[in-house]
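Handover notes (outgoing to incoming on-call)

Open items:
1. BRCT domain-containing protein: sequence verified, structure written out, both below. Nothing else pending on this one.
2. Nothing else urgent.
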Amino acid sequence: MADAEGIFSECFIAFVPSAQLAPKLISSLSTILTENGATTVEYRRDGSIPIDRVTHIVSNTIDFPQYIDSQAYMIPVVNTHWITISISRRKQAQVRPFSPDPRMIFSEVVVTCADLPQMDKESILGATMALGGQESKDVGRLTTHVCALSMDHPKVVVAMGKGWKGKVVLPHWFDDCFKLGKRIDEGPYLLPDPEILKKDPDEELDIPSNNNLVGASSANPEFISLSDGNSARPPVTVFQDKLILLGSDLKITPRLEKALKDIIVYGGGRLVEDVEECTTLICQYRDGEQYVKASQACKEVGNLSWLYFLIVHNDWTSPLRRLLHYPIPRNGIPGFKDMRITVSNYGGEARIYLENLIKACGAEFTKTMKADNTHLITARNSSEKCKAAPEWGITVVNHLWVEECYAKCEIQPVNIKKYNHFPPRTNLGEIIGQTSFNESRLRDLFYPGGEESMSPRAKRKRKILEAAEDNAYSHGPAEGVVIGEVAHGGDSDTTMQEDNSEEDSIPSAAAAKKGRRTTQQVTPVRARPGKENMTPVANSSGGRSAKAKAMDVLSTIASDIALYEKEKKRNTKPGTPFGGKRAAELAEKEKAESAKKSTSHKDDADDEERPAKKSRPSLPGVEMRVILTGFTRWVGNQNKEDQDRRKLRDLGIQIVLEGQPCDYLAAPHVVRTVKFLCALARGPTVISSTFIEKVLETGKLQDVDDFILKDSEAESKYDIDLERSVSRAKAHRGKLLRGIPIFCTDKIKNGPNSYRLIAEANGAMFMIYRARSGSNIKPTTAEQDNFAPPEPVYLLSGSTPEEKQLWPRFKDMAEKGHMEPRVVSPDWLLDVAMAQQVRFDKKFLLDTE
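BRCT domain-containing protein C-alpha cells:
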C-alpha cells in the first residue's frame, strides 16, 4: 500500500533556496517528490516556512533564519541526497546521515570495515554512525570508504576489480577525526601508499587554503569594495524587509555610513535609529544599552564584518556561526590579559584570523616567539618553535583551544586531548574557523534577564531558543546538533502554548526528550483557521533626526524630478497640454514670475510688516513603498498625478519608480508587463490598485489585507497561483534564475532590453547572441562534469530567417560545453518570471527537430 501511495506519501516538505540549492534543482526535486506521494509546502506570504505544516525541510546548509525553529520543533533538516537515496532504495532513508549540519562530520560517509579486530571495528562504526555516517556490510555502489589495513582483503580486491570509485583508508583517519571532533582530509591515510606511513612527520607540508575564513578573519575590517554608484550592481536582497540599526559604538566615516545606507535601502531594507524598532543591530562591543536591549529581544546582533559578509555574498548567515562576525567583549576574556601568544605553521587568512582572535580574547599577540611567551598555537608540532617551546616552558596547543575559549567565554584547560592532538601529515589550518557560539552562554554572561520588558514575540523567540538548546546534544563533537524528530500530532504534552500569543505553539523540550525515538512516522500539524500571517505594519518613525527627515524629503521629490526630466526630453505634438520644450518653457516662466514677486515683496517690506513665515509640517515616515503598473487614473493628467502623489506621501505612502525597493506591487489585474514581472521578483505583496484609489478618495489609510489582488481568470490563463508566486519570490529574493545562462538574439521582436531586465531581476546570466558572437560556453565533457546530466541553456529567439540561422551554431556551442540547448520563445521567460518557478514545457520550443 505504501508503494502505491508513494514512498513520501506522509511527508510535507519545504525547500530552502541557497547558493548550494538553486531554484532550478528545487523545481526538479519537487516534481520527483510529488510523483512519489509527497506534498511540497509553499512559503508563507512573508517568506517564512510554515513550520507547523512541514515534516521535513530540505536544505544543503544550516544557514537559514528558521533553522533554530526547526531545532525547537525537532523538524528534520536534510540535504538533497536524502531524496535521491530514498528514491534509489524505494523507501525513506534515515535522516541522521543527511544532516547539513557541519558538526555531523561524517555526514554522507558510507563505510565498511575489512580485516580489522572486532573491537576496533565496532568502535569505528559506532562513532561514525553517531556523527552522521552509515555502515555498509559489503562494498556497494553507495559505499564511500573502506576502512582497512591493506589492499589485500577480498572486500577491497573484489570492489577494485569492479571499478569501485571510493576510498580505502587506514583506521588512523577515523581515530584522528574522532580526537579532533573535526573531519580532516583523508589524503594522507589513503591506501595503497598512505603518506603517514611513508613520510617523516617533520617533512615539509603545504599550508592549506580555507574557505571558512573568507570575510570572517577580522571583527572590524578596514575596507570593503563598495559600488561607487556609477556601475550597476544587483541589489543586496538579503536586506529585504530588514530594519537595521547601525550602533552608536561603530567607528565609521560619514562616507562609509552613506554607502552602507544606499546598499541596504537599494536592497529593500531600511535604516532606523531606535533599538526597539530594528530587527538587526550592527555594533562593535558586547555591552551598552543598544546591545543588551536588542539581544534580550532576540534580535539579530552582528558586527561590521558580518554586515560586509552579507553584502558581498548576498546570502543570509547567522552572526553566531563565525566567531569574528559577532561583537567582541570590550575587555577580552577573563584570564587572557597577561598572556603573550604566538602562532606557527598557519598562513594567509588563518594567521590573520588567529592574530585578531587572540587580541579579541584580550591577550598580546607576538610575531616572534621569545622566552616570555606563555602559549604557542601551532597547526603542526614539527617546527623549530614547537621544539623550543617545551624547553622554555611555553604551552603548545592547536587553534581549537583559543577558538573554544573565545566561544565559551572562559579559559579552557590546555590538557584536553583535542587541544594537544596533531595528526602527523595534516596541517590543522584546513579545519580552522569551524567553531561557533552557543547563544545561551552569551546570554548568561552579557545580557541576562529582561523577561519583564519582553514583547510577546520576543518571549516566543526566547522559548524557541531554549527548546532548541534542550533538544541538542550537550557535549562531544556533535555538541549543539539536533537530529530532527517530531512528536505525534495527537500528543497533548508535546506542545506548550504561550499566553496571549498569536503565534504557533512551541514544542516542550522536556516532553520531546521524554518521547524521543529513533524513527517515527509524522502527522503534520494543520494550520488553524483564519489568516495565516498578518501583514506587519512598520512603526512610525517619531523622534528621528534632522538628517533622516531631510532624506525623506529628498526621497519624496526624487520621483518628481525624474518624471520632470523625462517630460522635458519627450517630443510632443503641438497643442499638447504639457511636455517637451513647452514644459520647460512653462517651468522657466513660473520660476521667473516667482522671483519677480519675491523682489516686489522685498521692496515693500519697509512700508508694511512682513507676516511670520509658516513652517511646513514634517512628512511622516514612509510606511509603504508601492510600485504602480496599469494605473489609468493619471493618464494624460500630470497635475492630477502630482497632487495625488503628495496626498499619498502625506499618509506615509511613497510611489516608487521601477527598479527601486518596494513593499507592495499595485495593479488593476495580473499583467505580464516588464514593470510587473521585475517588481514581482522581489516578492512584494501584490494588491489591487483600487487600494490607492480608495485612499485618495477617503484621505485615510485602508487595511491593505482587504485589497490583496485576486484575478482567477489571469491565474488560470497563465497557470499560476499568485499567492504562491509571491511566497516563492520572497524565498528566492531575486535569485530564481541564479546560475542559469540565458542568451537572446539581438533581432528578437520588441528588442532584447525588456527581456534583459526581467532575466537580471531574477538573477540570470543574460547575454546577447549575434551572428559573430564568440563561444561563451567553455567546452567540457561529461567526464569533466563528473558525469552529471547536462544543464539546460536557453536562447530566446523569434522565428525570422535571420534568427533561425543562429540556432545550429548555438546548439553546437551548448553541446560542446556539455549543456542541453533549448531555443525557446520569449514566453518561456515570462512564464517562469510569473510563476516564480523554474519550469519548462515543450510548447515553448521553437526548434522541435
